[in-house]
Amino acid sequence: MSNDLISPRKDERGSRRRDLKSVPAPLRSINFYFAAYLCFVALIFVRTLSNLVAFAIHYEYGSHIPLIPFMSAYLIFVQRKTIFSSVQHSFRTGGVLLFLGVASFWTSYAHLVSLSENDVLAWATASIVLISIAGFVICYGSGTSRRALFPLLFLFLMVPIPTFVVEKLIFLLREGSTSITMGIFQICNVPAVRNGFAISVPGVTIEIAQECSGIRSTLALLITCLLASYLFLQSKMRRILFLSLIVPMAVVKNGIRIATLTLLSIYVDPGFLYGRLHHEGGIVFFLLALLLLAPILWLLHTSERTKRPRLFPGVGPGKADGGVPGAVASITNTVRS
User: Fold this and answer.
1) Which of 126, 161, 241, 262 is surrounded by the most beta carbons within 10 Å?
2) Is residue 216 over pLDDT 50?
3) How far apart are CA 323 and CA 74, in angstroms?
4) Would the pTM count as exceeding 0.90?
């Protein structure tokens, strides 16, 4: 039969079959075992995971938690050819990690240390993440795990921030935001008097409360910058330098936000202090922070010896199996006021 008579649909079916055959059968079976392992872990620790979901819904600084496992899985998926180039079981290393994870989980609920309910949840969640990573090491081996090190460690962002760390971070953000706001008022020649976290300007007194600290957008900025430094920078020092700018940039961004709303309420409409820009405008100032960080990232990237963009380890520019814009853009859904 002539090749001209072959249906294009048959060609498409044939290409799909070849794509399926391109995945080695042992790897498909290992994927099945690992998926079953994760389901088993989820069933065993379903109570803790339910508490984690409730925490993410109730606390604004936990709203990013449900996104983390999907983003980690996405990073592994787009690098799958590199990560799974050679697979070999590692029962010894994985077994040690599994033992440590189980022991850590038991300790978290053994009341050996006096902790708050949220801190116990953080400890238990970290243990579950370690147990999940142990399963990955057992199924795919140490070499594969090293190639997937960043996506695996990225899972620890699921762990709720301990209470004392949250309190210190919120205090730091409030203090910095108040100082930046006062500085903007001085530049704009707006008379202002500061009293702690309260600022009095003509006609209104504002207070930078805990809800206005910007911790939610700060965490979103942290996740975005972690991904950007991993995807576009190779030097550890440049990555550290870039990540060290997160908190200062978050403070500047929040100070600009507070000053802008206050000035608009004074000179335009008092309703700006209570309107949509106040409650839902966090994304606008979050994008402003990204806009300020973008040139710094570009300078750090271009200063590296490697001229080729490092979109993914071991993958040339434009050769990745998938894209990252969707993963990065999904972070902005967690940013509001």
Assistant:
1) 262
2) yes
3) 9
4) no
